[in-house]
Specification:
The structure holds 2 protein chains of 2 kinds. By secondary structure, chain A is mostly helical. In chain A, 70% of the residues lie in helices and 2% in strands. In chain A, strands 1-3-2 form a 3-stranded antiparallel sheet. The radius of gyration of chain A is 33 Å and the shape is flat. The N and C termini of chain A lie far apart (88 Å). Chain B folds into 2 domains: 195 residues, Serine Threonine Protein Phosphatase 5, Tetratricopeptide repeat (Alpha Horseshoe), CATH 1.25.40.990; 82 residues, no CATH class. In chain B, 76% of the residues lie in helices and 3% in strands. Chain B has a 3-stranded antiparallel sheet. In chain B, a hairpin with a 2-residue loop joins strand 2 and strand 3. In chain B, helix 1 packs parallel to helix 3. Chain B is flat, with a radius of gyration of 27 Å. The termini of chain B are far apart. The chains are: A mainly alpha, B mainly alpha. At the A-B interface, helix 18, helix 26, helix 27, helix 29 and strand 2 of A face helix 4, helix 6, helix 8, helix 9 and helix 10 of B. Chain A: Pfam families: PCI (PF01399), Rpn3_C (PF08375), TPR_PSMD3_N (PF25573).
Chain lengths: 552, 289
């Protein structure tokens, strides 16, 4: 939340800046006295003026930043290396704070010439940023203007060449980001629809990582539109066919980026409207690409864990969620994700009958958000049904918002079981009436049935005596006499080894490096041979030498 | 024309629901479905298109009656079929509800009662068939559709019933389940159909937990424990589970020796397991170093 706020305020600041700055650009491009021209306002901001001058006009800076990415995209296409487009995408986060409709419009108008075949795209982009009457084909003075400020970069590059589709999709993504930040969801939705259609029509492998991004924002927009998600007529339902089609194409084209991100989006989509069985079917019938980007894997695991938790398959859910929390990026920007995943993980752990580690609640970034869950864990650990009920009642809204409420309601039986276990540990013999009173159960009969079930489920080792109405605990064996510690040990070692294997797999090895090594080895061998030859030839000498020594 | 005929059939189905035999009602239903087909309303179409809302709700009611009739006839397959047909109607219904708003609210309330009835029955069916995963998925969907108002869900007469039953079954408070099934607690007669299955289910649950929990049980108290009518039934039930009756007490064939044997069997592979594990570690270490 706060993150978003600061972003917004930052944006507003940028807006003001652009309002102040343009006039000097249009009047004179010598760039010398820009703020003095506005004289009356700027009088006392001498320092500020100096600053602006020093760091160049922010608009021009942003524009040149955007354009520098075009070069990356060009290279990505030329060298067929997706790493360059990824790098371009990564720069979006730094550009996004400085984007304004004017900047986008300017870039679009400079990039597309009026005669190029894909002016349609440009028109859509301009429409989206609400600058429909900017003429294409770059008003020349602007170009000179920006050219003079960052002369090296975009001088001769764009005129001779066609604009490659990667660039217009990239600009489309920028427009999407901007519209999302300024909350123009309807417009963004329309633009995204257009972009996704365009991506479908183009068949270019170099577009893969970009199209994944486009779909991502597409579904984000859909989520924000009028009838919000839980209602079945929300637009997210209507984009399902598009996403499914995209998934199909992506699978056929072995487009891993899009595949991964669309699967994740679909899962999220289904879960938002609680179509659990559909989500389950989707998971069953698709294969999540193995070498997808880490973030997508984390998201996928989280949603999968959620589905499994609802289906009462706690062990699987636990596995997926643990992996998700581990894979979550540790930087502050993904804090929300790891918090949400941790919450769900905690509930699942409780449902499995485990008590989460206290250290989890002590992490600085988690402490506040996890507080309700902390109370919950405490109630479950002690087996206090009363505390449990009050915690639920108090934090019901929080739990509902986190989507864990219905899972937490299932915990009731666990609380009871823990309560019974505590009692069986502390008393060797206790009457059913006492159990009933301590655990606030309805009646003695209930208590009897519950205890009997607990015994059958292996929660406690005890026997019941019906005639005299008490529970008699058996002696508890020593855990260390069983195979339990060995199993725990084995599990941990396996986890460590798996971690090692994964990190080895994750390493990137430079191409053709082994040839170099081979060459080195060859050389080394030759040298050795030479050496051997020399030794052979100098055999006599050595013997002589040896002889000499002996002689001495 | 066809529409009026349909309404007639529907009222006939609704008013004399319990007295009609299954064959009669299914004949009526298939006639109704034919009429729906003629009106092109067999499947739900998006609101706002040509189909008028009255036809939409007529079709839905036909399916609802069909679902209830098949439950009365203890035909779970037919019921499931009707439920899946209804699912589409319910999904679209909320769209119609918000779209038309205003005057249809009273009608929507009546609709909801039937809808909750059928959904509740569906939940109960899932519960008795032991499909807990589906049960919870459905529940999750329901609570989201109501905007996360789980309390409301539980307060509902029809929906709250299976939810409570599930909770008690999970907890092990079988006596409450038992009470809920007797004493006119059942929300409507269709729900009663499941009582028999549920009784059987909890009885076997209780029996299996008793086998582990009690060393022995007096026959007299077993009667109340298992919710059986007479001691004769107790004896019969005990025979069917292979329990030993002696001096008015029931002794359970102890499961101890079998588990011990299993333990002894496990003992051997256990040391082997450790050796295997250790060898595995050694091999892995070899690859790392």
């Amino acid at each position: 939340m706060t993150d978003k706020d600061t972003k917004k305020s930052g944006k507003q600041g940028e807006d003001e800046m652009t309002v102040v700055v343009p006039p000097p650009k249009n009047k004179q491009n010598s760039a010398q006295p820009p703020n003095d021209a506005d004289g009356d306002i700027a009088m006392e901001d001498d320092t500020k003026a100096g600053e602006v001058e020093a760091q160049v006009d922010p608009v021009a800076q942003t524009i040149s930043d955007i354009k520098s990415n075009f070069a990356l995209l060009d290279r990505a296409v030329a060298l067929f290396d997706p790493r360059f487009s990824l790098r371009a995408l990564r720069s979006i986060s730094s550009i996004r704070k400085r984007l304004t409709p004017d900047i986008l419009a300017q870039v679009v108008s400079e990039t597309f010439s009026a005669s190029s075949p894909n002016t349609q795209v440009a028109e859509h982009l301009l429409l989206a940023v609400d600058r429909p009457n900017v003429t294409l084909g770059s008003s020349s003075d602007m170009e000179i203007d920006s050219g003079s400020k960052s002369p090296a970069k975009n001088g001769g590059k764009k005129d001779p060449k066609e604009v490659i589709p990667e660039i217009d999709i990239f600009l489309g993504i920028l427009a999407q980001v901007h519209l999302y930040d300024t909350k123009q969801f309807q417009r963004g939705f329309a633009l995204s629809r257009f972009l996704s259609e365009r991506i479908q029509s183009l068949n270019r492998r170099t577009l893969d990582s970009l199209s994944a991004k486009v779909y991502f924002y597409f579904s984000l927009f859909a989520e924000q539109l009028a009838p919000l998600p839980p209602s079945p007529q929300s637009p997210i339902v209507s984009i399902r066919p598009i996403l499914l089609a995209a998934l199909r194409t992506a699978v056929l084209r072995k487009d891993i980026d899009t595949q991964a991100s669309v699967i994740v989006l679909l899962l999220r989509n289904y879960l938002l409207t609680s179509h659990i069985s559909q989500a389950d079917l989707l998971v069953q019938h698709t294969q999540f690409p193995e070498n997808a980007a880490n973030n997508q894997v984390a998201r996928f695991l989280y949603y999968l864990g959620r589905v499994r938790a609802i289906q009462l398959r706690y062990t699987e859910a636990h596995e997926h969620l643990t992996a998700a929390t581990r894979k979550a990026p540790s930087s502050a920007c993904a804090l929300g994700f790891s918090q949400t995943a941790t919450k769900l993980l905690l509930v699942v752990e409780l449902l499995m009958g485990d008590i989460p580690d206290r250290a989890i609640f002590r992490q600085l970034t988690m402490e506040a958000t996890l507080h309700p869950y902390f109370l919950l864990v405490r109630a479950v650990r002690v087996g206090n049904l009363e505390d449990f009920e009050t915690t639920i009642a108090q934090h019901a809204d929080t739990f509902r918002r986190d989507g864990t409420y219905s899972l937490i309601l299932r915990l009731r039986q666990n609380v009871i079981k823990t309560g019974i276990r505590m009692m069986s540990l502390s008393y060797s013999r206790i009457s059913l009436r006492d159990i009933c009173i301590r655990l606030h159960l309805g009646s003695e009969e209930s208590a009897e049935y519950i205890v009997a079930k607990a015994i059958r489920d292996g929660v406690i080792e005890a026997t019941l005596d019906r005639e005299r109405g008490f529970m008699k605990s058996k002696e508890v064996g020593d855990v260390y006499a069983t195979s339990e510690p060995a199993e725990a040990f084995h599990d941990r070692i396996r986890a460590c080894l798996a971690l090692h294997d994964e990190s080895v797999k994750a390493m990137r090895f430079p191409m053709n490096q082994h040839r170099l090594e081979l060459k080195n080895a060859q050389e080394a061998r030759e040298r050795e041979r030479d050496l051997a030859k020399e030794i052979q030839e100098g055999d006599l000498d050595e013997d002589d030498l040896g002889g000499d020594f002996e002689g001495i | 024309m066809a529409e009026r005929q349909l309404t007639q059939i529907l009222t006939q189905l609704q008013t004399s629901a319990s007295s009609l035999s299954y064959t009669d009602s299914s004949a009526l239903l298939s006639k109704a479905k034919l009429l729906l087909l003629q009106l092109n309303a067999l499947t739900p179409t998006a609101p706002g298109s040509a189909s008028n809302p009255s036809l939409f709700s007529l079709a839905r009611q036909v399916y609802e009656q069909g679902a209830l009739a098949s439950i009365r006839a203890k035909n779970p397959d037919a019921f499931l079929r009707y439920v899946s047909q209804l699912q589409g109607f319910y999904e679209l219904e909320s769209t119609v509800g918000t779209g038309a708003a205003g005057g249809r609210i009273a009608g929507a309330d009546a609709n909801r009662e039937e809808k909750n009835k059928v959904t509740g029955l569906y939940l109960l069916l899932l519960l008795t068939q032991g499909q807990y995963a589906e049960f919870h998925s459905e529940l999750e969907a329901l609570s989201t559709r109501l905007g996360g108002a789980t309390r409301e869900l539980e307060a509902d007469r029809y929906l709250g019933y299976p939810i409570k039953l599930e909770r008690w079954l999970m907890e092990g408070s079988y006596d409450r389940v038992w009470k809920a099934m007797k004493k006119g607690e059942v929300p409507c007669e269709e729900y009663g159909v499941f009582s028999e299955i549920l009784t059987f289910q909890i009885r076997s649950e209780i029996a299996s937990s008793s086998e582990r929990a009690y060393p022995s049980l007096p026959i007299s108290s077993t009667k109340s424990l298992l919710f059986l009518e007479s001691e004769g039934e107790v004896v019969e039930f005990a025979r069917s589970r292979g329990w030993v009756l002696k001096d008015g007490h029931i002794y359970f064939p102890s499961a101890e020796p079998t588990t011990e044997e299993a333990g002894a069997e496990q003992e051997k592979p256990f040391s082997r397991l450790i050796i295997e594990n250790t060898l595995g570690y050694a091999r892995e270490l070899e690859t790392i170093v």
